[in-house]
Design a protein that fits this description.
With 124 residues, this protein is mainly alpha-helical. The protein has 4 helices and 2 strands. Helix 1 packs antiparallel against helix 2, helix 1 runs antiparallel to helix 4 and helix 2 runs parallel beside helix 4.
Length: 124
């Protein structure tokens, strides 16, 4: 139980940091358009790779590829869902459908992957 809490919290914090980095260094408030969507998928896949390697350990390449693939697929599914409109402009987080706002997608994805990977580690 404790490992699941730490895994999801670590994923949430890494997702928040990555979302803020995407917004600050690229100037994009959302993953609208082709270039921004590619950045969103790359950010999500990087988050998945880091969490998978951090939780599962060796062999690095296989676990990183698995984490990146799961994160990319999850992001694709979330972006396709008809999610409600969120307005996080007051928090400097952007506005749009919840599946297109990095401050929503990346932390939730990180928390879910952290929980999933910590449960996988316990099972092994």
């Amino acid at each position: 139980m404790r490992r699941a809490f730490y895994g999801s919290t670590l994923g949430l914090l890494l997702g928040l940091a990555l979302a803020k980095g995407c917004e600050r260094f690229t100037g994009l408030d959302g993953f609208f358009g082709a270039r921004a969507a590619a950045l969103g998928y790359a950010a999500a896949m990087a988050l998945g790779a880091v969490l998978a390697v951090g939780h599962l350990g060796r062999p690095f390449a296989r676990h990183a590829a698995l984490g990146a693939a799961v994160a990319g697929l999850a992001t694709y599914v979330v972006r396709g869902l008809p999610l409600p409109w969120v307005d996080l402009v007051a928090l400097d987080g952007g506005a749009g459908p919840a599946g297109e706002v990095p401050a929503v997608v990346l932390p939730l994805l990180g928390a879910a992957l952290g929980l999933l990977l910590s449960a996988e580690r316990v099972r092994r």
